[in-house]
Amino acid sequence: QVQVDGGVYTDVSVQKLHSLLEKKDFVLVNVHVPFDGNLPQTDQSIAYDTIGQNLDKLPSDKNARIVLYCRSGHMSSIAAKELVKLGYTNIWSLSGGMAAWEQAGQPVER
Length: 110
Prior knowledge:
- With 110 residues, this protein is an alpha/beta fold.
- Helices cover 25% and strands 21% of the residues.
- The chain is built from three helices and six strands; from the N terminus they run ββαβββαβα.
- It has helices spanning 14-22, 74-85, 97-103; strands spanning 2-4, 7-12, 27-30, 44-45, 66-69, 91-94.
- The chain has a six-stranded mixed β-sheet.
- The longest helix is centred in the C-terminal third of the chain and has 12 residues, at 74-85.
C-alpha cells in the first residue's frame, strides 16, 4: 500500500499481476508515453499525464479495480496518485513496470 493525497494505491508485483490475469476481473491500463508495447490483455492506453481528462475510458464505478503500468513504474505511480485524488479507491500499479515484467520472462506485445 502506498499512502498518497486522498488515500492509497497498491503496488503489485509481476508475479501477483500474472496470477490476477488468469481470472481477470479488472481494467488493465498502459499509461506509458510514448507507446512501447502492451502487456497481454491490456484494455486501454491512456497517457499518464492525461488520465484525469480520460475518465470516460475508465469504469464509472470508482471502486472498480484498475491496474496501471508503464515502462518502469514511474509514470504509473503518477497516474495512480491522480486517480486516487479523483476519488478512485482500488488503484493498483505494476511495480517495476514492463521492464520488470519482461525480466521475469513474461511476454510484451509490440
